[in-house]
Design a protein that fits this description.
Pfam families: STAS. This protein has 120 residues and is α/β, with parallel strands linked by helices. The protein is 42% helix and 26% strand. The N and C termini lie far apart (30 Å).
């Protein structure tokens, strides 16, 4: 999991993250977000196509969600992209689907970002 793109437009900073979820990568994401001024709109767009492959234990998904909630607490909009049916069902069963915004794919997310930036 790594930040593949960081775009900033006026007071809006958007981080696109892709890859396998690993704790070290989440620490880098936290650090990158912390460096953005708090008066800016901050968004984290995560490619979730690998979330179903979280390793080690079942608590890994809990750790992942816990980190997302910590990020969200810092006034960061979290958008989950490209969730497969299993991951989406898990989020729905755990009633986590209403906590985060979703986009069907990273391309759609990029289009949403572009159209919002143009409108701003």
């Amino acid at each position: 999991m790594e930040i593949i793109n960081h775009t900033s437009h006026q007071n809006r900073h958007i981080f696109f993250v892709k890859g396998l979820v690993k704790e070290q990568a989440l620490n880098k994401v936290h650090q990158a977000i912390a460096e953005v001024p708090t008066d800016s709109t901050r968004e984290l767009w995560i490619d979730c196509s690998h979330v179903d492959r979280l390793h080690l234990t079942n608590s890994s998904i809990c750790s992942f969600v816990s980190e997302l909630l910590k990020i969200r607490k810092q006034n960061v909009k979290v958008v989950l992209c490209d969730m497969n049916a299993t991951t989406e069902r898990l989020f729905r069963l755990l009633r986590l689907d209403s906590l985060f915004d979703k986009a069907s794919s990273e391309d759609r997310a990029a289009l949403q970002v572009t159209s919002k930036s143009i409108a701003a």
